[in-house]
Design brief:
The chain has helices at residues 23-34, 65-73, 106-115, 136-146, and strands spanning 10-18, 38-45, 51-59, 78-83, 89-100, 119-123, 127-134, 151-156, 160-163. The chain is of the alpha+beta class. Strands 5, 6, 7, 8 and 9 form a 5-stranded antiparallel sheet that branches. Strands 2-3-1-4 form a 4-stranded antiparallel sheet, with helices on one face.
């Protein structure tokens, strides 16, 4: 009887920073100095070019959340830190994957990609390159299903996340 492996637990942090040279380096060096494992890291400017948002996914076992937040807050260019609960946020990740697809199995692979709402972005004589943006779990599922065909290359961006929108109904003024 095999004991199932423990599912890794992660903290997802959304860190708003000044969009200046060296900020990302200071953030990642902080993690390295403390021995915190970064599972995923994505960074890009926001709608205001003065700021960038860094989405950091860290292994919960290697890094106590309170300590990470305290250390990040000490960095001068860090403006705001939010932990994003997966139940209250929208998470996506992009995966590009090249899979072996000789003509005898090509239609099966295309059908599978369609089920996952992916796209074929490049076609070769014996390979297909697939692009898909989905939740990390769905990407894992597709990758597992494509593995028997033969994966030639895979690249994932890491998670990006934002809080879910408030779904409460706006109050409409009554017309009396």
């Amino acid at each position: 009887m095999t004991i199932p492996a423990a599912i890794p637990q992660h903290h997802v942090l959304s860190v708003l920073v000044e969009n200046k040279a060296g900020v990302l380096s200071r953030v990642t060096n902080l993690f390295a100095r403390r021995g915190y494992n970064i599972y995923s890291l994505a960074v890009a400017p926001t709608d205001d070019e003065r700021f960038s948002r860094i989405t950091i996914v860290v292994d919960a076992d290697s890094a106590p959340l309170e300590q990470i937040v305290k250390q990040l807050n000490k960095l001068i260019n860090v403006l705001k830190i939010s932990e994003l609960d997966p139940r209250d946020s929208v998470e996506r990740e992009l995966m590009l994957l090249t899979v072996r697809a000789d003509p005898t199995v090509r239609s099966q692979i295309i059908e599978l990609v369609d089920v996952f709402d992916g796209r074929i972005v490049d076609v070769g004589p014996d390979e297909l390159t697939i692009a898909i943006d989905e939740t990390p779990d769905r990407l894992d599922d597709l990758e597992d299903l494509l593995r028997p065909y033969g994966i030639a290359a895979v690249q994932r961006t890491g998670r990006v996340a934002l809080p879910k929108l408030d779904r409460s109904s706006p109050r409409v003024p009554s017309s009396n």
